[in-house]
Amino acid sequence: MQQVLDQLDIIIDDAMVTNSRIGYFAYLYRRVTAEIQKEIILGNFEDNARMEIFDVAFANYYLDAYNGYKKQTPISKSWQFSFGSKDEPLTILQHIMLGINTHINLDLGLAASAVMQGKEISDIENDFNTVNSILGNIVNEMQDRLSRVSPLLFLLDLAGKNTDEEIINFSLGKARAFSWYNANLLWGLGVGHQDNAIRQMDLAVLRLGEFIKSPKSTLINYTLKFIGKFEEKNVGAVIRKLREE
Fold first, then answer.
1. What does DSSP assign to residue 124?
2. Which pLDDT band holds residue 160 (cuts at 50, 70, 90)?
3. What sign for the dihedral angle of Cα 57, 64, 186, 128?
4. How far apart are CA 152 and CA 136, in angstroms?
5. pLDDT digits (tens, 9 = 90+) for 178-206
6. d(CA 35, CA 100)
7. What is the DSSP code (8-state) at residue 214?
8. How far apart are the C-alpha atoms of 42 and 40, rounded to whole Å?
9. What is the pTM of this model?
């Protein structure tokens, strides 16, 4: 798992040098991966050895997509959309959520199905949910940290119904059930019979990404654009401020 953290550090460092917004999700995901590693060391999963295998498999879907994007080789439509939005004038929150959307709604189910082939997938359900809980906790913490670099993010609340939470819950709250459903579906189909299902899942996740990028509400779109005008624009400065304890 340390190798995964090292690769994420390389992605983050490159993003800080090149001012690439890809670094925002990579930073969040490194925090999640480090937290999972800590929980494994503490023995807090039902099967800690299996969880390490699972977490590395999960991370490799992101790392493979990132490397494919950089090398311009085919990757999932949803990751292509997420990475391809890096130069769009979206809020920092939106860039983070585009990465979360694809990695949880698509990659998490793929990883669980792959790791549990030949075994009973229900055996990993509790640990699977624990991973989602860790992610949820870190995203909540991240919202507090984002105020350092996005001082007007609170306006999303004023725009109506805790909208920042709605954007996050659209990807996270529903993702728990969605990704577990996908994991079970793929596991049931078995290796060699999953391609069409994966394509359909990818398209569904792409549509969620389009919603995160361009919410249907005119008011929310306007509010996001206004918030973005007052955000820190330098990726390196953003990540350094997010890292501060």
1. G
2. low
3. positive
4. 22
5. 889 999 999 999 988 999 999 999 999 99
6. 16
7. S
8. 5
9. 0.92
What's the rounded Cα separation, in Å, for the pair 31 and 214?
27
Residue 175 has pLDDT above 60, yes or no: yes
- C-alpha 166/C-alpha 191 separation (Å) is 35
- Decide: 231 and 92 in contact? Cβ < 8 Å: yes
- Tell me the C-alpha distance between 36 and 52, whole Å: 9
* 108 in Cβ contact with 131 (< 8 Å): yes
For residues 64 and 243, give the distance between their C-alpha atoms in angstroms, rounded to a whole number. Answer: 25
Instruction: Count Cα atoms within 13 angstroms, Cβ side, for 123.
Output: 14
CB crowding 182-219: b at 16 or more within 10 Å, else e: bbbbbbeeeeeebeebbeebbeebbebbeebbebeeee
Find out whether 78 and 109 touch, Cβ atoms under 8 Å. no
